[in-house]
Specification:
By secondary structure, this protein is of the alpha/beta class. Helices cover 38% and strands 12% of the residues. The protein has twelve helices and nine strands. Strand 2 and strand 3 form a beta hairpin. Helix 3 packs across helix 12 and helix 6 crosses helix 7.
Length: 305
């Protein structure tokens, strides 16, 4: 693997010295390194500086649909005076819908005209790999297939200190955290940074039971914050007209959780979306989720998305 890394780096350096654009396979290269630095979908800076610019994303790239933006009101969070919104998707186990939720939410916020930063904090790099695969979709041009927001990989226990070096003041920052049971240090750092923690949960007894360790971590991390983080459960993979959804909501609320009113249905458009560009079908549900998050974040403002 070291030889592969060596020759790939030589190849990329030669391409860059010839005036070419950094090759997108550097994402896969970086994932093999034992301590991955910041890297962006399609771009690796030789000095490993904190700012990353996706070559497929430029100020001229805009989604010409919804134009509402987050209000530029400054409010106090636990680390600094910031604008924008900072959310993390967290759960005890893998395969709960964290990455799917993060990517779809990032798209609807970007579609509304917001500046979005998606942080892939999972060492497996699922969100970053999704971005890379979507960019190579042969049915679309590169500008159409590229994610319309910045994305960085940062599986670091110092995430709460390093993200402020990358994020803009008015960014919507969405963090796809790793599973708590395997990477507690990284997940705790993300929970320390964000304003709201969203817990994706299917309406089943075992999934509901697994939310307890997440809540325990949220309570413990409150000791190093200026104020407790908000948290809510997002019911996902829900079967239409099934009693399991209402039963799960009742059980979660009985345990003291806030549960978002919007539920994500169990649909193929979500289950089969990994590695694909995000189209218009299916965005309505995530638009409603984003609106709820804004309402919880800015209850005194007429925030729209």
């Amino acid at each position: 693997m070291q030889y592969l890394l060596h020759y790939c780096k030589m190849f990329i350096a030669a391409a860059e010295s010839a005036g070419g654009r950094a090759i997108r396979c550097v994402v896969l290269l970086a994932r093999f390194s034992p301590a991955p630095p910041y890297f962006h979908a399609g771009y690796h800076h030789p000095e490993e500086s904190s700012r990353r610019v996706n070559p497929q994303f430029s100020p001229g790239h805009r989604a010409p649909t919804l134009r509402a933006r987050l209000p530029n009101s400054v409010r106090r969070c636990d680390t600094a005076q910031v604008r924008g919104l900072r959310d993390a998707l967290a759960n005890l186990k893998p395969g709960t819908g964290k990455t799917t939720s993060a990517v779809w939410l990032a798209h609807v916020f970007a579609q509304a005209g917001n500046s979005v930063l998606l942080v892939d904090a999972d060492p497996s790099g699922s969100a970053l790999e999704w971005s890379d695969l979507a960019f190579m979709d042969p049915r679309l041009t590169p500008s159409e297939a590229a994610f319309p927001f910045r994305i960085v990989a940062l599986p670091s226990r110092e995430l709460h200190r390093r993200v402020p070096e990358i994020a803009h003041a008015d960014d919507v920052v969405i963090i796809d955290t790793p599973q708590l049971e395997d990477h507690p240090g990284i997940a705790r750092s993300a929970l320390r940074y964000v304003d709201e923690i969203l817990i994706p949960c299917a309406p089943s007894p075992i999934e509901i039971n697994r939310t307890t360790p997440v809540r325990d971590e949220i309570n413990e991390i409150s000791a190093v914050r200026d104020r407790p983080a908000r948290s809510a459960v997002l019911l996902n993979r829900c079967i239409a007209r099934a009693h399991s959804t209402s039963d799960a909501r009742q059980a979660l609320e009985g345990l003291g959780y806030d549960v978002l009113g919007t539920v994500v249905p169990r649909l193929e458009v979500y289950a089969q979306s990994f590695g694909m560009p995000i189209g218009q079908p299916g965005r309505g549900v995530w638009h409603d989720v984003a609106r709820e998050l804004l309402d919880r974040c800015l209850p005194l403002r007429a925030a729209r998305i």
